[in-house]
């Protein structure tokens, strides 16, 4: 493969990855507590390129091809999303840095998605049924025969939970050293990476009852970026076609001369 085509192909692959990230962000623009992802890549060091591809012409060998590859990484933007007033006592939003703790079959996960509900046993759970953790474990709410018809469920800014004026526990709110070493696992949940440091009690955070935190995706900005990426991808495709056509003409002309 010629160096020109290889460089264009690498650029096209980077734009393809960016398009996948943008598409996923847009698909989750209405997901409660979703945190958008961004892509970043390292520009190739031109000084490391060989002066000549090899002695036989413009073709790259395997050792030279790696010089043209750009390292691509994905990182999550953990900035706060805007809050929406729902009037539902079981909806909780965090303002500041921190996460709710959720007990899943794969251990403790973390989330900003606070549209909680009560299961049949009166336990505070996520929409997927995972128990929300308090300082003492699962949060069980004593209620009437219908667990969704308790008299008064309230949570103050520090995360203390009361039912009918009696405190029954406190939300377990945690934070991590930045940059966050967390991995997305779906449903707006995160898990701690293997090499990550453990959680610590969240300090710079407060709870807003009756609100949910919306996605921090700016849909208009994402659409604009998608158009830009599509145009860039098309440009690389045109480069590949142009170089291929030039090479084809050169081969045909050489063939005629011989």
Task: Describe the protein's architecture and organization.
This protein has 258 residues and is α+β, with helices and mostly antiparallel strands. It has 2 domains: 3-78 and 217-257, no CATH class; 83-213, no CATH class. The protein is 26% helix and 28% strand. It contains 3 helices and 19 strands. A hairpin with a 2-residue loop joins strand 15 and strand 16. Helix 1 (3-27) runs antiparallel to helix 3. The model is unreliable at 53-57 (pLDDT under 50).
Mean pLDDT: 82
How many helices in DSSP terms?
A: 3
DSSP strand content: 25-35%
Strand arrangement in the largest pleated sheet: 15-16-6-5-14-17
**What is the rounded distance between the termini?**
24 Å
Main sheet: strands, sense, barrel: 6 strands, antiparallel
Structural class designation: alpha+beta
Shape: elongated
Subunit organisation of the chains: single chain
Low-confidence stretches: 53-57
Radius of gyration: 26 Å
Number of strands: 19
Number of domains: 2
Write the element-wise H/E pattern from the N-terminal end onward. HEHEEEEEEEEEEEEEEEEEEH
Helix share of residues? 25-40%
Q: Which helices and strands, and how do they pair?
A:
Elements: H1 3-27, E1 37-41, H2 62-65, E2 72-76, E3 83-85, E4 92-96, E5 99-104, E6 107-111, E7 117-118, E8 124-125, E9 133-134, E10 137-138, E11 153-155, E12 160-163, E13 166-170, E14 173-175, E15 182-186, E16 189-192, E17 200-201, E18 205-209, E19 211-213, H3 219-257
Antiparallel strand pairs: 1-2, 3-19, 4-18, 5-6, 5-14, 6-16, 7-8, 9-10, 11-12, 12-13, 14-17, 15-16
Helix pairs in contact: 1-3
């Amino acid at each position: 493969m010629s160096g020109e085509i290889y460089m264009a192909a690498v650029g096209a692959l980077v734009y393809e990855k960016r398009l996948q990230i943008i598409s996923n962000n847009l698909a989750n623009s209405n997901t409660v507590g979703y945190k958008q992802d961004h892509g970043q890549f390292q520009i190739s060091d031109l000084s490391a390129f060989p002066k000549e591809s090899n002695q036989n012409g413009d073709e790259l060998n395997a050792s030279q091809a790696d010089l043209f590859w750009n390292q691509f990484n994905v990182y999550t933007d953990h900035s706060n999303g805007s809050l929406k007033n729902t009037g539902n006592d079981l909806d909780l939003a965090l303002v500041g840095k921190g996460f709710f703790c959720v007990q899943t079959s794969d251990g403790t996960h973390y989330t900003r998605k606070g549209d909680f509900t009560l299961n049949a046993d009166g336990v505070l759970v996520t929409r997927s049924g995972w128990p929300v953790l308090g300082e003492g474990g699962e949060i069980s709410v004593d209620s009437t025969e219908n667990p969704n018809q308790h008299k008064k469920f309230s949570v103050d800014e520090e995360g203390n939970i009361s039912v009918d004026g009696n405190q029954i526990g406190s939300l377990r709110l945690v934070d991590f050293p930045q940059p966050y070493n967390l991995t997305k696992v779906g449903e707006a949940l995160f898990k701690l990476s293997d090499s990550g440091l453990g959680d610590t009690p969240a300090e710079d955070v407060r709870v807003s009852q009756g609100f949910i935190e919306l996605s921090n995706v700016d849909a208009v900005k994402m659409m604009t970026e998608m158009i830009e990426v599509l145009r860039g991808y098309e440009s690389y495709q045109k480069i590949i076609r142009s170089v291929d056509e030039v090479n084809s003409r050169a081969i045909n002309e050489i063939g005629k001369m011989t």
